[in-house]
Amino acid sequence: MSDLLHAPKNIYETADDKLRADISTYAEGYKAFIQAARTERECTERAVELAKARGFREYVHGEKAVPGDKIYSVNRGKAITLAVIGSEPLSNGVNIAGAHIDAPRLDLKANPLYEDSELAYFKTHYYGGVKKFQWHTIPLEIRGVIYKADGSKVNVSIGSELSDPRFVISDILPHLGQDQAKKVLADAFPGEALNIIVGTIPEAGKDDKVKEKTKLAVLTLFNEKYGITEEDFISAELEAVPAHDVRDIGFDRSLIGGYGHDDRVCSYAALTAILDIEGTPARTAVCLLADKEEIGSESVTGLQSRAFDRFIGSLARSQGVSLDDCFAESFCLSADVCNAFDPNFPEVSDKRNNAKLNYGVCLMKFTGRGGKSGSSDASAETISTVRGLFAKNNVRWQIGELGKVDQGGGGTLAVYFAQRNIETIDAGVPVLSMHAPYELISKADLHSTYSAMKALYTL
Ligand code: MN
Ligand code: MN
Question: In terms of DSSP bridges, do strands 331-334 and 94-100 run parallel, antiparallel, or are they unpaired?
């Protein structure tokens, strides 16, 4: 073949036995991570555990940053930034891997519990971009926190143990689905129908003043287990998340099926890459696992908050460097997933410019929609930097864009890094069925993304 032609290859076409073994071993750690951590709070807790086990300690604001320091800072239990202080001063900038640990889900409303026709339900409000029909008739778990009237906190996790019950949203049987079938999808599955069935046995007893006895029975169970009253739901954050097991998919076990690959897959790659740094890097390594990306990076735990600036700013100031000067020299891989080309639905993609499974971490020059609006559109210079970096470190990668022009679009953390004057480009794992309760990714792409994040920390 002519050397003039760009001919990307499937990773498995050239993978030797060692690479195949590495791909498969690395995948097991990731599978365990997303099997257990299904909320942003749980991902943060797990990241702290893993970091502590590797010698990281919690950073005290204002503390001096010394080369070789391994530190982390948790933002309100829902986001975490880790750093390994480099031998070069922060005026030389830092290498940032930024990913997000929130994922689409169903949040319980403030007054979730109600009864209809003697069945008890939780009302939900979906979080992030979901195709609502996908959340009917699948097993759900309920996880999160409740703060009681006295301010004490209760951790809730129901559904992961074999002995636990699970929860489900029903759907119309096909026999009676004629009207539903004629509707457009947006109307056929209204958000207010995402009500989770949580009980059917009415409270036994003679108190006929209580009208909703099934609701009361469920509340009684909750009270026995967690000591809460109905009002305590108001100061709770409870999330209904898919209960599916994380499993190998396909005869060749090349794929992983699970909930929340977007973006825990890049989060895990970035996290393990910073944990695996040996010795003191030249430039300071930073890993941000952010919350609220799925709703626009809003809130104090999203990247639009200045919590990230406070942490890096404190490190920079401790070396007599201004945050602006540090950011201006910094480099960021905005580590988020992209869509994998789906032969079942080829019509939404430009096949020549779409990421493919097993072709490695995908660089996205831009995201956004329409004429690239809402995107940070990385420069040729930025791509050139990454291209050189990946070549030097044998990272298998591909270039892609999210679907056909004018087919839709989406955003990532990239714009918010770029707003801080940090050179940024999106790089992440291609996903099939993104935002579905059960997403698919390739183990080879996961491993390639880990290699990419490791390479970043050598920049
Ligand atoms: Mn994402
Ligand atoms: Mn997403």
Answer: parallel
Centroid of ligand 1 to alpha carbon of 328 (angstroms)? 25
pTM of the predicted model over 0.85: yes
Phi, psi of 169 (to 5 degrees): -105, 130
Q: What's residue 3's pLDDT?
A: 87
Q: Considering only CA atoms, which of 371, 333, 359 is closest in space to residue 456?
A: 333
Residues of the chain scoring pLDDT < 50: none
Per-residue pLDDT tens over the stretch 117-128? 999 999 999 999
Q: Is 51 found in the same domain as 76?
A: yes
In a domain, 117, yes or no: yes
Bridge partners of residue 248, in order along the sequence: 256
Helix (H, G, I), strand (E, B) or coil at 94: strand
Residue 346: CATH number of its domain: 3.40.630.10
Instruction: Using the 3D structure, point to which of 242, 275, 297 is the last residue of a domain.
Output: 242
- CA of 177 from ligand 2 middle (Å) equals 31
- pLDDT confidence of residue 420: 98
Distance 410 CA to ligand 2 centre (A): 8
- Give 339 Cα–ligand 1 centroid separation in angstroms: 10
Tokens of 408: 């839709």
Q: How far is CA 166 from the centre of its chain?
A: 23
C-alpha 185/C-alpha 203 separation (Å) is 38
Q: Which domain holds residue 128?
A: 105-242
For tokens 């390479």, name the residue.
455
Sort residue 310 into left (φ over 0), alpha (ψ -120 to 50) or beta.
alpha
* C-alpha 377 – ligand 1 centre gap (Å): 17
How many angstroms is it from 143 CA to the middle of ligand 2? 20
pLDDT at 65: 86
